[in-house]
C-alpha cells in the first residue's frame, strides 16, 4: 500500500549534464524530471549552445541559489553558454572540464548525459546505478528510451550498426514497453479464453515476461540520451569524437568502450522519455556544416559510414571504403528512381563526406588503435547479415499481421478477447520500482557474471512482432471534412437493443462498417502503390486504418480501462504465444464508430501455431495454392491432357516464341521478312514480352508462365484489385477464384490466345488503377498510381487493342460521371490525362498500324485462327466458342451475380455494371463488325473471349460491391445464419463447377509444349547462313506463311503487306493442286522469292507435288511435327542478277522460268533489307532482283546516283543496272520509324520512373 509520506531525497556522486539547443518545448519537463529523481545527481550542469527561443532565460531561472534545498524547483548548479555551432560531444566536454575546475576530479563518480528533450522517469538514475553495482565491469549504461508523447512505445534500447553503416536497434517501429501493462497484459489475466488458445490458466506467467523484458543486456552502444558513463572511462576514451558533433557519436563511443575492454549495458529497468527533436526534424541542425549537413538524414548517413570505417579492422576498412562508396551510388540511383530526394541527398552527401577528406579516417583510426590497447572485442554486438535477414522476416510477419488486423477492423469485426484492466502508466510516468541487486531478475548476468551479449537491447521471444493502428480520431482530415449541407446516411439505420444507432442490418460480428464505396471504390488502385504504406514493411508505422472508438456499454459504468490522454497510434503485438490487440469495441464485440469517446481495449490471445496457421492458411495463400495445383494438373498429361508443362508452347493462335535477342531484334527492325518482306511496324507486344521475359529468362519462359499459371495469376490479381472493398477476405477469395476460372479464360489457354490471357491477368489491376485515379485518396501519390495504371493499360492494349480501348473509355466515362473526392480535382484531372495519353505514346509506332488496319483492333495479336461459330445463348453463358469453352457453367455465375444484385441493390454496383456493359458492347462489335484478320484473306467476325472476360470482371465487381459493408442492409430473411450458410455452400459449389469445367477445358485444344514446327538442324543452319526463306503451307483453316532465315514465329502474321496473304494463298493452292503447269510455275515463283524449303501439310500433298514438279524439288528431312519438307531446285535466291532476256520478262510481270538452273539467273551473296554489291561490266538491260515485296519507299543508287526502283516478277524489288561496272546500293524504307521509337523510349522512361511508388504525404 503506498505511503502518504514522501520519500527522503538522496544524492549520489553523479555529474548530470543537460545539453540544450532551442529546447523551450521540452526543457521544463526535462528539468522537472531531473528534480523528481529518487536518487538525485550531486551536481547538475546545463550547457546552452546558442539557443534563440528563450531557453537561456528558462535555464537561468532554474539555477539553484545558495541555501536552497533539494526540493526547490531550482535544480541546476550552473549554466554554460557556448556558440550555436557547438556539437553535443563538445558541449559535454566543456561541462565536464568546468565541473573538474569547480568541484575537483572524483574518480569514483559517474557522468549522466541528458538531452534537453529527454525526461527520465523518477527511478531512472537509481536503476542505472543499481545495474552498475551488480556489474562492476560496466563502464557505460543506457536506459530504455520511450516515446515522448506515448511512453508505451520503445524507441531505443541499445544501438548497433550493420555492414552498410546503418543504425540497427533490433526493435520494430512500435515496440511496446510490456512491463507497463502489468501481469494481465502479459498473460496472467483471468477470464475466459475467447481466442481459442486454451484456458487462461495455461498462459505463461506475466511476471516472468516482465522479468524477461527488463533484463540488462550487453550491447555495442546505447543512446546518449540518459546514458551513464563512468568517470574514468570518459577520461580514458577522451569523450565523444569531436568529428561527430551530432548523430552516431554515441555508437562510436560505445564501440570504443567495448574495444577498450569495458562493458556497455542496456538497462530496460531504467526509462527515459525522448522526443528525438533533431532526428525527427523538429528543430534544425546548427552544429554540422555542409557537407554532410544540415539535413538530419544526410548527417546520420555520413557519420554512420565514418563510424563503421574508423572502428573496423584494417582489412575491413580499406576494402570497405570502395564497397561502401559503390553501395552509396547504387542506393542513390535507387532513391532517384523512387523519387525520394531526401535519400538521394543523404547518399550524395555521404559520398562527398568520405571522398572529400572531411571524414579524417587515418587520424581517427590511429587514435582508436591507442584506445583499444586492452584488447576488448565487439564480437556478437555488430549486426550481421543473418540478423538482418531474421529481422526482415520478423518485419514481414508484422506486416502480414498488421494487414490482417486492419482488414478485420475495416469490416467492423474484432476477434474475440478479454477486456484489459487499467494499464499502468499508459500515459505518464511509471510507478516506483525497487532498485538494487534484488530488482535484477535471476540470470540477468549470464553464466559467468557478465550480461548476455545481444545486438538488440531488449529480451523478447524470437517471434515477437508489434503492429500499430490509429487511435480514435486520428483519421485523415480530408476523409472527414464537414459537409456544407446536411447529407442523408449512406445506409439505412435501425435502432439497437440498447437504443443506439447501428448502421446497416447485419447481426453483431457481421460486416458492419461505414465507408465511401458507393462511388465505385473498387480496389484502391494499388496497381502502383499502396494508399496507406510507404513501401517499407519495417519502418512504416500504420498511419491509416479504422479510427473507430466506442462509447463504453452502460454495463461497464463508464471507462473500465486505462486510456491514453493523447492522440497516438495504439498498439498490437505478437509476443510468444500472445497476440495482444487493443481495439475499440462495443458490448457485442463489434467495432463501432463514435469519435467522441476514447477507445476501449481488448486482449486477444493467439498461439504461435495458430498464428502460423492463420498466415499459411490465409485466403489469398489458399487461393493461389489451389489455383496453382489446379493449373498444374489440368495442363499436365496425367489425366489425358495435352501436356503443356514442358515449356516452349505453340499451337492454335500461338506460333513459336523467339528467344530474347531475336525478339528485340524483330521489334526494333524496320523491315521484316515475313510474307516476303514488309516495313509494317512490329507489334508492341514484342517489347512487352522482351521486358517481361527479362526476370524469367526470356520471352519463351514468360509466355509459358502466362499460360500455365494463368489461373493463379488472374486469381491473385482479382484478389489484390479488391483489397479496399470492405468485404471479408473469404468472400473476396471466392470471387477471385470464380474470376480465375471464367470459361473465356479456359478457352483462351486451350486455344493459345495470348491476347486474352494477358487481358485475364491485367484487367482487374488496370480497373483498380483507374478507380484509384478517378477517386484519389488525400495525400496519396497520384502520379505513381496514374503512371502504373498507364503501364498496365499499355501492356494490355499491346495484345488486345479492343479491350484496351474499352478500359480507356471506362476511364473517360468515369471521369465525367463519377464525382471525385473534395480537394482532389487537380490530381484527378492530371491522373486521367496521364492514363489516356501515355498508353498511345508507349505503344508507338504500332498505333499507326491500327489506324490503317482496323482488323488488328478487333482480332488482337496472334496468329490467324478462324473464330468458331458461337450463338447468343453461348455468349450469355460466357462461352466464347472453340476448344476449352466447356459446358455452359458460366450461366450459373451470371445467374448468381444477378441474384445477389436483386437481393442487395445499391448504387455501389453501378461501376461494375458499367464495365460489364462496355464489355458487352465490345462483344457485339466482335460479332457484328467483320474485317479481315491478320494473316487472313476474307472478312470474318473476331473471337469474343477477351471482351467476355471484361463482362465477367464487371459482373463479379458488381457482386462484390453488393456484398460489401457499404451496401444497404440485407433483408432479415437473408441475414439469418442458416440462409447465409446455404448461400456460402451454393457459392462454393458454383466455383467447384467452374473448376471442374476448367480442368476439362484445359485438357483440350491445340496448344501444347514442344515448340511447334521446327526444321532439322541442318536446314535451320542453312536458312540462317544464306538468308533463304521457308514456305509453310497451311492445312484446312490455316494460312500459308513465308519467312526468311527461320520458321514462322509469334506476330509474323501482323507484319505482312496487305497483298501478301492473297498471294501466298494462291501459291499454296497451286502447289497442292493437280495442275502440273501451275505447280511448276508456283515452284519457280517461290524460288524467285528466295524460298528454299517448302513444308507441306501432309504426305499426300508432298507426293503429288513431287510428281508434278519433278526435277524442280527434292526431298529434305521432315519437320518436328512430321510434316514433309521439300527443297526447291529452281533458279532463285535472296538476291539475283538477271540477264537482259530474263530481265525483260521480270519487268513485264511474267512468271520465272520453271527450270532447275539457268545461265540467265545468277545468285548474288546479299540479303535484304540492305543490299550493297559491286557488279562488273556487262550487257545493258540487266536487272538486280531483291527477294522482297515491293513497297513504296525502297531506295536504290547505282554508282552513287539514285535510280528508280521497279517491280520484278510482279511483286519483288527490281533495280535496273547499266552496262558499266558500278556499286549498287538498295535499302528498304524505315527512316520514319526511328523518331517514333525515340518518342516511345522517352515516354517509357518517364512512365517507368514516375510509376515507382513514392512515399505518402503526411498531414
TrEMBL record:
Report any Pfam family annotated for this entry: Glyco_tranf_2_3
Q: Where is the signal peptide?
A: none
Domain of life of the organism in this record?
Bacteria
Q: What InterPro entries is this protein classified in?
A: Glycosyltransf_2, Nucleotide-diphossugar_trans
User: Could you tell me which residues belong to the region Disordered?
Assistant: 171-205, 420-447, 471-576
* Keywords for this protein: Membrane, Transmembrane, Transmembrane helix
Segments spanning the bilayer are 615-634, 700-721, 757-778, 790-817, 829-849, 884-902, 909-929, 941-962, 982-1003
Which residue ranges have biased composition labelled Basic and acidic residues? 565-575
Q: Gly residues compositional bias: what residue ranges? A: 501-527
Report whether Membrane shows up as a keyword of the record: yes
Keyword match Transmembrane: yes
Q: Where is the composition biased (Low complexity)?
A: 182-203, 425-439
Name recorded for this polypeptide? Glycosyltransferase, GT2 family
Amino acid at each position: 500500500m503506498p505511503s502518504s509520506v514522501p520519500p527522503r531525497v538522496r544524492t549520489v556522486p553523479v555529474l548530470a549534464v543537460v545539453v540544450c539547443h532551442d529546447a523551450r518545448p521540452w526543457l521544463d519537463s526535462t528539468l522537472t524530471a531531473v528534480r523528481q529523481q529518487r536518487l538525485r545527481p550531486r551536481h547538475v550542469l546545463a550547457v546552452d549552445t546558442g539557443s534563440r527561443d528563450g531557453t537561456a532565460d528558462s535555464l537561468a531561472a532554474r539555477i539553484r541559489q545558495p541555501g536552497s534545498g533539494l526540493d526547490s524547483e531550482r535544480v541546476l548548479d550552473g549554466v554554460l553558454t557556448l556558440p550555436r555551432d557547438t556539437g553535443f560531444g563538445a558541449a559535454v566536454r566543456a561541462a565536464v572540464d568546468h565541473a573538474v575546475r569547480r568541484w575537483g576530479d572524483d574518480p569514483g563518480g559517474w557522468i549522466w548525459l541528458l538531452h534537453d528533450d529527454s525526461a527520465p522517469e523518477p527511478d531512472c538514475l537509481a536503476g542505472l546505478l543499481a545495474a552498475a553495482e551488480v556489474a562492476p565491469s560496466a563502464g557505460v549504461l543506457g536506459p530504455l528510451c520511450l516515446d515522448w508523447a506515448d511512453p508505451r512505445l520503445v524507441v531505443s534500447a541499445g544501438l548497433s550498426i550493420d555492414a552498410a553503416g546503418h543504425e540497427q536497434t533490433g526493435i520494430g517501429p512500435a515496440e511496446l514497453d510490456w512491463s507497463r501493462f502489468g501481469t494481465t497484459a502479459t498473460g496472467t489475466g483471468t477470464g475466459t479464453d475467447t481466442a481459442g488458445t486454451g484456458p487462461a490458466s495455461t498462459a505463461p506467467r506475466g511476471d516472468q515476461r516482465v522479468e524477461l523484458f527488463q533484463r540488462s543486456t550487453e550491447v555495442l552502444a546505447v543512446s546518449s540520451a540518459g546514458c551513464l558513463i563512468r568517470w574514468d572511462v570518459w577520461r580514458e576514451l577522451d569523450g565523444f569524437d569531436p568529428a561527430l558533433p551530432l548523430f552516431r557519436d554515441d555508437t562510436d563511443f560505445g564501440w570504443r568502450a567495448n574495444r577498450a575492454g569495458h562493458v556497455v549495458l542496456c538497462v530496460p529497468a531504467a526509462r527515459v522519455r525522448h522526443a528525438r527533436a533533431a532526428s525527427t526534424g523538429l528543430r534544425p541542425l546548427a552544429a554540422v556544416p555542409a557537407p554532410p549537413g544540415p539535413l538530419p538524414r544526410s548527417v546520420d548517413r555520413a557519420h554512420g559510414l565514418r563510424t563503421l570505417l574508423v572502428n573496423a579492422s584494417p582489412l575491413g576498412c580499406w576494402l570497405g571504403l570502395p564497397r561502401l562508396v559503390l553501395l552509396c551510388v547504387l542506393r542513390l540511383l535507387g532513391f532517384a528512381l523512387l523519387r525520394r530526394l531526401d535519400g538521394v541527398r543523404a547518399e550524395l552527401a555521404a559520398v562527398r563526406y568520405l571522398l572529400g577528406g572531411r571524414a579524417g579516417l587515418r587520424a581517427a583510426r590511429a587514435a582508436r588503435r591507442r584506445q583499444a590497447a586492452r584488447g576488448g572485442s565487439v564480437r556478437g554486438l555488430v549486426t550481421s547479415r543473418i540478423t538482418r535477414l531474421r529481422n526482415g522476416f520478423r518485419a514481414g510477419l508484422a506486416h502480414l499481421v498488421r494487414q490482417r488486423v486492419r482488414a478485420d477492423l475495416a469490416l467492423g469485426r474484432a476477434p474475440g478477447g478479454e477486456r484489459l484492466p487499467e494499464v499502468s502508466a499508459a500515459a505518464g510516468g511509471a510507478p516506483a520500482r525497487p532498485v538494487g541487486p534484488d530488482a535484477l531478475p535471476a540470470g540477468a548476468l549470464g553464466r559467468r557474471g557478465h550480461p548476455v551479449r545481444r545486438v538488440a537491447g531488449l529480451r523478447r521471444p524470437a517471434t515477437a512482432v508489434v503492429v500499430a493502428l490509429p487511435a480514435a480520431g486520428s483519421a485523415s482530415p480530408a476523409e472527414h471534412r464537414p459537409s456544407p449541407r446536411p447529407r442523408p446516411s449512406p445506409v439505412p439505420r435501425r435502432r439497437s437493443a440498447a437504443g443506439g444507432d447501428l448502421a446497416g442490418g447485419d447481426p453483431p460480428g457481421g460486416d458492419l462498417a461505414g465507408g465511401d464505396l458507393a462511388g465505385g471504390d473498387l480496389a484502391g488502385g494499388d496497381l502502383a502503390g499502396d494508399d496507406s504504406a510507404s513501401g517499407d514493411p519495417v519502418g512504416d508505422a500504420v498511419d491509416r486504418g479504422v479510427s473507430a472508438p466506442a462509447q463504453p456499454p452502460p454495463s461497464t459504468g463508464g471507462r473500465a480501462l486505462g486510456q491514453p490522454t493523447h492522440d497516438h497510434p495504439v498498439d498490437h503485438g505478437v509476443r510468444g504465444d500472445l497476440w495482444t490487440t487493443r481495439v475499440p469495441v462495443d458490448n457485442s464485440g463489434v467495432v463501432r464508430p463514435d469519435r467522441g469517446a476514447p477507445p476501449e481495449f481488448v486482449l486477444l490471445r493467439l498461439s504461435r501455431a495458430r498464428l502460423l496457421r492463420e498466415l499459411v492458411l490465409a485466403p489469398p495463400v489458399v487461393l493461389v495454392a489451389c489455383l496453382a495445383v489446379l493449373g498444374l494438373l489440368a495442363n499436365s498429361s496425367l489425366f489425358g491432357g495435352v501436356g503443356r508443362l514442358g515449356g516452349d508452347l505453340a499451337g492454335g493462335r500461338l506460333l513459336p516464341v523467339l528467344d530474347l535477342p531475336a525478339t528485340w531484334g524483330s521489334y526494333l527492325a524496320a523491315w521484316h521478312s515475313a510474307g516476303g518482306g514488309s516495313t509494317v511496324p512490329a507489334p508492341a507486344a514484342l517489347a512487352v514480352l522482351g521486358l517481361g521475359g527479362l526476370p524469367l529468362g526470356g520471352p519463351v519462359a514468360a509466355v509459358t508462365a502466362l499460360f500455365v499459371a494463368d489461373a493463379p495469376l488472374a486469381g491473385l490479381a482479382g484478389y489484390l484489385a479488391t483489397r479496399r472493398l470492405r468485404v471479408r477476405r473469404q468472400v473476396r477469395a471466392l470471387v477471385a477464384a470464380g474470376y480465375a476460372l471464367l470459361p473465356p479464360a479456359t478457352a483462351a489457354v486451350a486455344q493459345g490466345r495470348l491476347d486474352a490471357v494477358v487481358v485475364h491477368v491485367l484487367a482487374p489491376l488496370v480497373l483498380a488503377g483507374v478507380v484509384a485515379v478517378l477517386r484519389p485518396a488525400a495525400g496519396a501519390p497520384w502520379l505513381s498510381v496514374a503512371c502504373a495504371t498507364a503501364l498496365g493499360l499499355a501492356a494490355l492494349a499491346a495484345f488486345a487493342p479492343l479491350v484496351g480501348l474499352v478500359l480507356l473509355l471506362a476511364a473517360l466515362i468515369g471521369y465525367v460521371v463519377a464525382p471525385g473526392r473534395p480537394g482532389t480535382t487537380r490530381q484527378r484531372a492530371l491522373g486521367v490525362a496521364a492514363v489516356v495519353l501515355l498508353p498511345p505514346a508507349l505503344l508507338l509506332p504500332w498505333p499507326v498500324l491500327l489506324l490503317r488496319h482496323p482488323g488488328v483492333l478487333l482480332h488482337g495479336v496472334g496468329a490467324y485462327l478462324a473464330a468458331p461459330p458461337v450463338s447468343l445463348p453461348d455468349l450469355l453463358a460466357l462461352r466464347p466458342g472453340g476448344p476449352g469453352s466447356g459446358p455452359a457453367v458460366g450461366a450459373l455465375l451470371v445467374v448468381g451475380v444477378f441474384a445477389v444484385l436483386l437481393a442487395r441493390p445499391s448504387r455501389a454496383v453501378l461501376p461494375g455494371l458499367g464495365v460489364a456493359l462496355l464489355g458487352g458492347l465490345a462483344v457485339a462489335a466482335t460479332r457484328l463488325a467483320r474485317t479481315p484478320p491478320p494473316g487472313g484473306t476474307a472478312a470474318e467476325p473476331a473471337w469474343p473471349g477477351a471482351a467476355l472476360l471484361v463482362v465477367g470482371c464487371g459482373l463479379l465487381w458488381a457482386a462484390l460491391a453488393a456484398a460489401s459493408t457499404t451496401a444497404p442492409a440485407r433483408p432479415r430473411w437473408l441475414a439469418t445464419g442458416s440462409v447465409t450458410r446455404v448461400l456460402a455452400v451454393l457459392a462454393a459449389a458454383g466455383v467447384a463447377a467452374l473448376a471442374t469445367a476448367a480442368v476439362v477445358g484445359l485438357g483440350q485444344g491445340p496448344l501444347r509444349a514442344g515448340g511447334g514446327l521446327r526444321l532439322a538442324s541442318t536446314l535451320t543452319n542453312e536458312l540462317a547462313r544464306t538468308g533463304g526463306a521457308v514456305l509453310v503451307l497451311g492445312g484446312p483453316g490455316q494460312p500459308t506463311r513465308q519467312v526468311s532465315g527461320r520458321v514462322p514465329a509469334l506476330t509474323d502474321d501482323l507484319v505482312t503487306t496487305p497483298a501478301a496473304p492473297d498471294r501466298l494463298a494462291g501459291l499454296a493452292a497451286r502447289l497442292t493442286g493437280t495442275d502440273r503447269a501451275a505447280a511448276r510455275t508456283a515452284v519457280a515463283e517461290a524460288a524467285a522469292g528466295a524460298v528454299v524449303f517448302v513444308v507441306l501439310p501432309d504426305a499426300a500433298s508432298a507426293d503429288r507435288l513431287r510428281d508434278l514438279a519433278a526435277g524442280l524439288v527434292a526431298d529434305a528431312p521432315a519437320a518436328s511435327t512430321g510434316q514433309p519438307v521439300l527443297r526447291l531446285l529452281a533458279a532463285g535466291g535472296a538476291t539475283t542478277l538477271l540477264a537482259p532476256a530474263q530481265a525483260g520478262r521480270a519487268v513485264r510481270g511474267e512468271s520465272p522460268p520453271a527450270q532447275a538452273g539457268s545461265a540467265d539467273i545468277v545468285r548474288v551473296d546479299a540479303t535484304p533489307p540492305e543490299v550493297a554489291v559491286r557488279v562488273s561490266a556487262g550487257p545493258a538491260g540487266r536487272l538486280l532482283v531483291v527477294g522482297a515485296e515491293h513497297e513504296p519507299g525502297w531506295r536504290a543508287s547505282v554508282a552513287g546516283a539514285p535510280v528508280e526502283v521497279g517491280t520484278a516478277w510482279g511483286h519483288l524489288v527490281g533495280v535496273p543496272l547499266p552496262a558499266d561496272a558500278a556499286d549498287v546500293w538498295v535499302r528498304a524504307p524505315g527512316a520514319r520509324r526511328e523518331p517514333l521509337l525515340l518518342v516511345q523510349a522517352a515516354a517509357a522512361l518517364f512512365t517507368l520512373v514516375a510509376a515507382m511508388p513514392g512515399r505518402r504525404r503526411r498531414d
